[in-house]
Amino acid sequence: MIPFELVEPRTLREAAGLLASGDPSVRPMGGGTAVMLMMKMGVLRPTRLVSLRAVEERYHDVIETNGEVRFGAMATLSALERSPAVRSRVPVIARTLRTLANVRVRNVATVGGHLAHADPHMDLPPVLIALGATVSAVSPTRARKIPLEDLYAGYLESTLERDELIADVTVRAQGKRRAAYLKCTTRSADDWPALGVAVVLDADSAQVREARIVISAATDVPTRLAAAEKVLKGARVDDKALREAADAAAGEAKVISDEHGSAAYKRELLRVYLLRAVRAALADQ
């Protein structure tokens, strides 16, 4: 790694101000799990890292309020996994985190860094998008809310401005909605997935009223599958409807090839895992 300067501002807006010059060699750092790997590989060569560890405590908190759960961008993935509010109000997030990387990574990696890194293989984005999550972003002079599904622009690209940082994430309590996240890995269970499928259903044992289906890893960005959602909306829960939804998903998804598998292979995975994820969500009580 080349030498770099490390600065540790005390507020999130101050941190955003340090990014406002537009210098691409100045980068923010949450837990540093992705940044340090990229630096060691020589992919990233920053002259200055802006550490967010010392920003206001509220950005480290996970709280429940008014039927929603809010987690600050600096909350670690382990804090999210252990949070009573997450376990009781959005249990699908807690279940997802159990196979996300490993406990050493989860103890360090932050929610904001996990989302802002914009790697399509990340596990939380499809789950949070299916749940309808929003992020708050701040710059030195403004703040705005962004539906999480609008945060991603391409592989490792987000719609954040250069002087913007994720402040927190808000997600509505799961309530009676049924949800599941399944992933297929080519090696260990906590490895990068070849495909991730998140499903959130407003349904009972007889009929699906609404469905949100989001896939990741097989596409450049986490992607909602509108055609598959349309098939399931109002449908009776039977094998025929599930097969039609799976075929619709495979037909509409812009699947890519990578070291985890060819596009054709991932398309077949999508057919299989969509069926499994919907059934897993229907079994969620």
Describe it for me?
The chain has 285 residues and is an alpha+beta fold. The protein folds into three domains: 5-50, 2-Layer Sandwich (Uridine Diphospho-n-acetylenolpyruvylglucosamine Reductase, domain 2), CATH 3.30.43; 59-172, Uridine Diphospho-n-acetylenolpyruvylglucosamine Reductase, domain 3 (2-Layer Sandwich), CATH 3.30.465; 181-282, CO dehydrogenase flavoprotein, C-terminal domain (Enolase-like, domain 1, 2-Layer Sandwich), CATH 3.30.390.50. The chain is 33% helix and 26% strand. The chain contains eleven helices and 14 strands. The protein has helices spanning 12-19, 33-40, 77-82, 84-89, 91-97, 103-106, 111-116, 124-130, 226-232, 239-252, 263-282; strands at residues 5-7, 26-29, 48-51, 62-65, 68-72, 134-138, 143-147, 152-154, 157-158, 165-172, 178-185, 193-203, 208-216, 223-224. It has a five-stranded antiparallel beta sheet. It has a four-stranded antiparallel beta sheet with strand order 11-12-13-14, with helices on both faces. A hairpin with a 7-residue loop joins strand 11 and strand 12. The longest helix has 20 residues, at 263-282. The chain starts with a strand and ends with a helix.
What's this entry about, in short?
This protein is of the alpha+beta class. The chain contains 11 helices and 14 strands.
